Amino acid sequence: MPKLLLQECWKLKLSWDTDLPSSMAKKFVKWKEQLKFLNDISIPRCLDKNEGDRNITLHVFCDASEKAYAACIFLRSEGDDSTDCQLIQARARVAPLKSISVSRLELLACNIGARLCQSVKESLGMEEVSTRYWSDSSNALYWIKKNENWATFVFNRVKEIRHLSDPDDWNHISGQLNPADLPSRGCSFQNLAKSNWWLGPPWLKNPPEYWPKSNIFPDEEIVNAEKRKTVVSVTNTEKEDKIYDIFSSYPKLLMVVSWIYRFIDNCRVKKNFRKLGSITVEERNRTEISLIKIAQRESFTGPQDKRLQKLQILEDENGLFRIKTRLSLKSDLKNFKFPIVLPSEHSIVEKLVRWKHCSLGHAGVQIVMTNLREEFWILKYRKTVRKVVKNCVICKRFDARPIETPTAPLPVDRLRAASVFEIIGVDFAGPLYLKGNQKSWIVIYTCAVFRAIHLELTTSLSTESFLQSFRRYVARRGRPSVVYSDNGTNLVGANNLIKRINWETVAKYSTVNKIDWKFIPPSAPWWGGFWERLIGMVKRIIRKVLGQTSQL
């Protein structure tokens, strides 16, 4: 009753400080006087859900009226000698202020019943207990059991109900046998105290075969009114063929349209006054103005188009949209002072930009933009020109990058934990021309791990000369364990001399180990990249220092 009175206050738009009407005040006082009868009402708090081997089931009853909708849950405990029922929880809500049908209110009652049952199961640990749901609304039960595409209101409630319960557990019951009728319609405290409503309906204590059974007879008009309307529209997907889409190039489009205009003009005059011969410049200019006007009219709604609001637009005598620039006082061509505005995405504009790009020798974006700006102002200028240049087939073919071979991992000797100059690469650079026109060469020793270099000067490319430089290198930097080089004859000869050494005899009297000399494959200089790169750096520095003396 207090909720209904408060709702009536909202309907009358009463503020908190406004006195209640006398009729509402009498109702509230009458309700307040009946509060004393609550002392006569007592509800047992103990639930017989764990006594022996009794069969426990939950029964959820739902009902609604024009003023409220409610749901109540009863626990049915069946044993060998007796069957007991008791109320677990009940909930009632007033109907919304917005007018709503009774069938929808019945569905709302089923919705709060499913929610309330889920809450009770989680609180009492009865998730596995069998549950049956009861409602006296055939329409609400039809919506729950039929999995169809309902309207938004019914669809959302049915979706939640089907998620919280099994549609097969919902049953129909007559309104006279539904205990949820009491909280949905209300009653006085005196009648509530005299009744045994919280003990459940009497028929619930009977065996299941004696429970009331009734079929569902929904109102088809009400039920079908909640079906989602299917809107069917037929769209013609055939693209309208336009003359500027038929031709791929801008000059050809101009020429064909010019001939069409001439044909139309000749049809309007007598035979003696018809134009003959090739297309004139005036006819070509007229055609170009017409095509530009088509592009503007199909893309812009007018000078007040939102894309043109930030530009000072004027319309010339031919009906073309132009931009008013600060060069209006310059004695120059009209197109330069007042360039023509063009949309960024239109077939005619695309053909115009492509023609400029090709006529300028497939020039880049900046050159094409500069040339076009002498006559036109295209929205999203750079993006439009870049798109055309990027899609040019000829430019794609010449600007295509060759397939690059993926780089291989570094050799193991480049990654070993070795000391400086323990693993080296050797090569010659030169010749250098000394005084007296004498030639000399530089032997470069490169550390494979730390990239350090050691330079030795030799007077020839012979094996003896290289071995002398190698001895000086060993005396200065220490003996290497691994040496990499190309297949030069002097280096091969040095390797052969080193192989002749009896390293086992040397090892008996010292800690010297054998030198492992490795040659890269013939005609594969990239195998020696780690020293070839440093040779290039040394050559460049020597050229700067020695000038004409070096012939590196």
From TrEMBL:
Residues 405-552 form the Integrase catalytic domain. GO terms for biological process: DNA integration. It comes from Araneus ventricosus (Orbweaver spider). GO terms for molecular function: nucleic acid binding. This is Integrase catalytic domain-containing protein.
